[in-house]
User: What shape does this take?
Amino acid sequence: MIPLNWYLILAAVLFVIGVLGFFIKRNIIALLLSVEIMLNAVNLTFVAFSSQRGQISGQVFVFFVLVVAAAEAAVGLALVIAMYRNRETLNVDRSNLLKW
Amino acid sequence: MNIPVVNLGAILPAIMLSLFGIAIMVAEPFVSDAKKSWLGWLAIAGTIAAMLALAPMSRQAGQWYTNLWIVDSYSIFFHFLFILIAAITILTSMNFLQREGIHHTEYYALLLFATVGMMMMAGSNELIMVFLGLEILSIATYVLAGFRRTDLKSNESAMKYFLLGSFSSAFFLYGVALIFGATGSTNLIVIADSLRSGDPQTSLVSLAAALMLIGLCFKVAVAPFHVWAPDVYEGAPTPVTGFMSVGPKAAGFAVLLRIFMTAFPTLEDRWTSVFWIVAALTMLIGNVIALVQPNIKRMLAYSSIAHAGYIAVAVAAGSEHGVSAVLFYTLAYSVTNLGAFAVVTMLSRSEDKLVNLNDYAGLASKRPGLAAVLSLFMLSLAGVPGTAGFAGKFFIFKAAVQSGLIWLAVIGVITTVVSFYYYLYVIVQMYMRDPNEEFADVRTTGPLKLALAITIAGTLYLGILPTRFLDWTVSAAVNALR
Assistant: This one.
């Protein structure tokens, strides 16, 4: 039996990897993937707590999160396509029309 | 088998808006281009129906659907505010969409769905519901921000909003997961009970609360999480900017107050001090950077950050007066800011080209009516007595002083004085500069006039006779704190 803390530490590490990836990566698709990693770290936390407490609700929440993540990915990829058509690059550093 | 009786009355406004939104999407292919604005009026009809549905909803006070959903005067107040915001935004958008050649009626449907998301945030008693409402709102708004598909600025604005929005949602959700682990529930009242009964894992609870706070602070654009707002507001289509600067902000504060008042009263001394710093920082940054903005949309973006700072002052005050000041201020600010954005939408002309402050030079000599209206909104945003903005700021600073936050109130008053400079600068441009052009192609049309009439009436009414709405906000605050 793997103790609960191991799952929580794994989830925290995954979340931090997602956050770091979001700041370090420059390609929009990579940023999207970083956010997905963060959401999946959250899912892992939910499932770990759910099985520790013997409450099924935590696992149900994961489905909600999956649905939301899918909807977000659909909109995000649509925005990526719209942007690529107009600009032909996916580098966020080149998206610099708006600044003060 | 028992089929549970579903009480639709408690969510009737949201059902109405969803039905009208779906009807608009279904009807779109069958309506010729010339008649697209009919669907805009259908959306207006939806907001009216939702407004009427508030009456049956208000008779259903209490908690519903296994305590997922709460109907009290707090949630009804926010429902009213969100429907009003949606209606004014639709009225402002109808001509804009035609003028820009992007008259796709999904726009109206998305606005209505975003409003449903905001309602879910204000009325939910459950963190997963809050998250779903937040995402319904956010996903609809990402699309709206990028609605001008072929425009690079609009693309960039939507992309930035999307990336930072989903990033911050993940923080919020991680907080929800940790609080679920610490207390075994995501219901706000159960969380509060289990924290009161002496939970040992205070560090986990504090971490969860902090993560949720970060997620929501991103959404309401308070410092230090405000950096996305000016870029996103500048690039989005102007009526959408107006919507984003009031709708998600009001919903974010509604949910923030609900979560922290209901679920974390035991941590109150910690989060009020966090809000002290956030409010002071936001007011300073928003007002000072707004001083040097040449672009009116960007100036209004920093102004909206500053206003979020004022609302955060009332959140820090935390008392019943503070909560009622938050409600009153969101209403006053929404009405005023939507009015200002309606005028900006009209004056920016095709492709939002003329959005620099010096494009407003001499407006008063050519279009005195428009200049007077924009001046009223600027004075209200600055907080001149007799306008909604003054009444709102007065209640906020009063609540802050009553809760002993004297220095925060002092910072608020000083930054308000600073803000007079950039608001009055618009008026100076309009009245004291020579016009560069005739403003002949600025057309005021029916829906826009209606939007302006509502916002002017609201700004003056809340400024001169605030008592009726104040009574409502006080009773809502008492209700929410109980």
In short: The beta strands of chain B are 62-64, 69-71.
